[in-house]
Amino acid sequence: MVRAALLTAPGRPLELVEIDLPAPGPGQVRVKLAAAGVCHSDLSLATGLLRAATPVVLGHEGSGTVTAVGEGVTSVRPGDAVVLNWAPACGSCHLCSLGEPWLCENSAGASTEPYAALADGTGVHPGLGVAAFAEETLVAERALIPLPDGVPLAAAALLGCAVLTGYGAVHNAARVRAGESVVVLGLGGVGLAVLQAARIAGAGPIVAVDVTPEKEELARRHGATDFLLSDERTAKGVRQLTGGHGADHAFECAGRASTIRTAWSATRRGGRTTVVGIGGKEDLVSFSALEVFYFARTLSACVYGNSDPVKDVPVLAEHVRAGRLDLESLITDRITLDEIPAAFDRMAAGRGGRSLVVF
Ligand code: APR
Ligand code: ZN
Ligand code: ZN
């Protein structure tokens, strides 16, 4: 039996339960978690903003050690350190064959099959195919990324979502170049990772925007050169900081229509907005037909930072080893499995950076 934080239905508090996790079947791998980050998408799944089959073990940003492998598994062995990948690509669908594996149509995260059971036999679903809010998990072999040397195992959990997403948004999706100006709206784990990635790209100025003033110090530590509070004057403030033009790039990391709109308005004529946050179905953004034409801006979204985790995690690891990417300062709270609800509360209140469950 394995201890896990279970969501029985959207809107219910997480419950600590014991789950019965089977031995790995063909192509499966069992992993003992070292750490799991608490991401806003977990909160959105817990509240019902995003949908998941229940009961479910959430958590999709994890790292750990392989404990057992099923038949036919060749890429990892017991004892190997791994990062969990919530969007493992099949390699053969239409979008994989176009070279966009982050949009894979057969991603294991889309699986609706139970992976474990409660004591009474009820099937339990793996959140985003990963189920990292548990002492151990069972995943498909392709949902594992071998951890490169020189990255501390627990902090490496963040590579599995926030950092891969934030770094990829800057380097794969927007392709920020040295000297370009950047504005980042929403400074949770993802937005802070975007700031660090913009710093690595040599961008400047790097303007950080959030609703709470306490984020300023955190933002500056992650590479922001300026900080603005989020309100109706934000776009104007960004223009003032960029020679009156607006930023070359905006990154929306709050998951709201209003911040998508502000991000777009804060870019220069011909500028680019990259939406990273996941917002609600009813939350609408509006643009006039004339301004869409006149400003000739680009608005696009990225999934998992348009990353290929197998190729990109080694790149991130190199940045960590060289001291350019600081995973440690993203982690503002180290918690236990029963403290995830408090981490959700901090997140909903816009406090702190990443909370990391350490097992
Ligand atoms: N303007 C600016 N910032 C805002 C606003 C706003 N109107 N509303 C909320 N924020 C800030 C919060 O204060 C918080 O600092 O956005 C930040 C979001 O951070 P987290 O809740 O920690 O979320 P994170 O895990 O970083 O994820 C960000 O990416 O993967 C998606 O679903 C995820 O949509 C979420 C986004
Ligand atoms: Zn996430
Ligand atoms: Zn595919």
TrEMBL record:
<dbReference type="InterPro" id="IPR036291">
    <property type="entry name" value="NAD(P)-bd_dom_sf"/>
</dbReference>
<dbReference type="InterPro" id="IPR002328">
    <property type="entry name" value="ADH_Zn_CS"/>
</dbReference>
<keyword id="KW-0862">Zinc</keyword>
<dbReference type="InterPro" id="IPR013154">
    <property type="entry name" value="ADH-like_N"/>
</dbReference>
<dbReference type="Pfam" id="PF00107">
    <property type="entry name" value="ADH_zinc_N"/>
</dbReference>
<dbReference type="InterPro" id="IPR020843">
    <property type="entry name" value="ER"/>
</dbReference>
<feature type="domain" description="Enoyl reductase (ER)">
    <location>
        <begin position="11"/>
        <end position="357"/>
    </location>
</feature>
<dbReference type="Pfam" id="PF08240">
    <property type="entry name" value="ADH_N"/>
</dbReference>
<dbReference type="InterPro" id="IPR011032">
    <property type="entry name" value="GroES-like_sf"/>
</dbReference>
<dbReference type="InterPro" id="IPR013149">
    <property type="entry name" value="ADH-like_C"/>
</dbReference>
<protein>
    <submittedName>
        <fullName>Zinc-binding dehydrogenase</fullName>
    </submittedName>
</protein>
<keyword id="KW-0479">Metal-binding</keyword>
<keyword id="KW-0520">NAD</keyword>
<keyword id="KW-0560">Oxidoreductase</keyword>
<comment type="similarity">
    <text>Belongs to the zinc-containing alcohol dehydrogenase family.</text>
</comment>
